[in-house]
Amino acid sequence: MLGPVILAASRSDRMRRFVSAAPGTKQVVDRFIAGETVEQVVPIVRETIARGLEVTLDVVGEDITTREQAFAARDAYLELIEHLKNLGYGPKAEMSVKLSMFGQALEGGHELALANVRPVVDAAAAIGTTVTLDAEDHTTLDSMFAIHEELRKDFPQTGCVIQAYLFRTEEDARRLAANGSRVRVVKGAYKEPASVAYQDKGEIDKAYVRILKILMEGDGYPMIGSHDPRLIAITQELARRAGRKLDEYEFQMLYGIRSDEHVRLAAEGHRMRVYTAYGTDWYGYFMRRLAEKPANLLFFVRSMITKN
């Protein structure tokens, strides 16, 4: 299985240097990363929304080691919000944040991450949009959910992410559905041990469907993060059975992957949001995209060979 190997490499400085220097890297990175600066990503946001789609924006770079980097991450999101303010897109352009980027893993990290993310959520609310807290590895989740709960006291539209491959997630889904939360469900893209997560793809898919049922039958707003055609069809059927209208849930897919499916779902009347990442510290995000799908890795290898 290549996925776990690639995920392990995502934490390797040696592999980071090798991949960054590889001749074919930029061609593949450009497929998944919308640009390096906010000035580069704003035109892509305009184009995406003009096509009847919506976006969630992620400033990549969660592997920080200092409080100064955490403050810089906060400021990068505030800069993004300032650029979005005059565009008037409201909830069509929301943001996704990783709390590790806001200092969660540092000493006193829980309080630091909450202090850094709060002004971002506040500024997002002021322009009519919101923020979703991305899920990271299982050791960070209790802190993430506690911050999510705290933010929802003042900003109830703040969303969070749950990962189907974790054993704990069905219980988390029940709690969040009962609370009326906005919840993105994904399969999971971190290297997790067998003690906390399903390792078999079939078991992960079954868990995903169980979680979908919980969310669709609950009081919250499900956001389905998947490119899997079978799971998309199951989502539509579960939504129909639950009596949900098309604006009472949404699909989310990654920038650069299955773009034709983005447009197809939007044309059918679904809310379709494109997860759009940008920034210079792209390595961790990029490696998780390779790990998720063998075709992405093959595309990368072919690009390297072609450029040599």
Characterization of the model:
The chain is α/β, with parallel strands linked by helices and 308 residues long. Helix content is 52%, strand content 14%. It has helices at residues 2-9, 13-21, 25-32, 38-50, 67-85, 109-126, 141-152, 169-178, 201-216, 229-241, 259-267, 283-292, 294-307, and strands at residues 54-59, 93-97, 131-133, 159-163, 182-186, 221-225, 250-254, 271-278. The chain has an 8-stranded parallel barrel, surrounded by 7 helices. β7 (250-254), α11 and β8 form a beta-alpha-beta unit. Residues 303-308 have low confidence and may be disordered.
Q: Helical region count?
A: 13
The SSE string, one letter per element, is HHHHEHEHEHEHEHEHEHEHH
Overall 3D form = globular
Q: Rounded to an integer, what's the Rg over CA atoms?
A: 18 Å
Termini, distance in Å? 27 Å
Task: Count all strands and give the number.
Answer: 8
Approximately how much beta-strand content do the residues carry? 5-15%
What profile does the largest beta sheet have?
8 strands, parallel, barrel
**What are the segments in which pLDDT stays under 50 over at least 5 consecutive residues?**
303-308
Task: Please identify the structural class as seen in this structure.
Answer: alpha/beta
What's the SSE blueprint?
Elements: H1 2-9, H2 13-21, H3 25-32, H4 38-50, E1 54-59, H5 67-85, E2 93-97, H6 109-126, E3 131-133, H7 141-152, E4 159-163, H8 169-178, E5 182-186, H9 201-216, E6 221-225, H10 229-241, E7 250-254, H11 259-267, E8 271-278, H12 283-292, H13 294-307
Parallel strand pairs: 1-2, 1-8, 2-3, 3-4, 4-5, 5-6, 6-7, 7-8
Helix pairs in contact: 1-12, 5-6, 6-7, 8-9, 9-10, 12-13
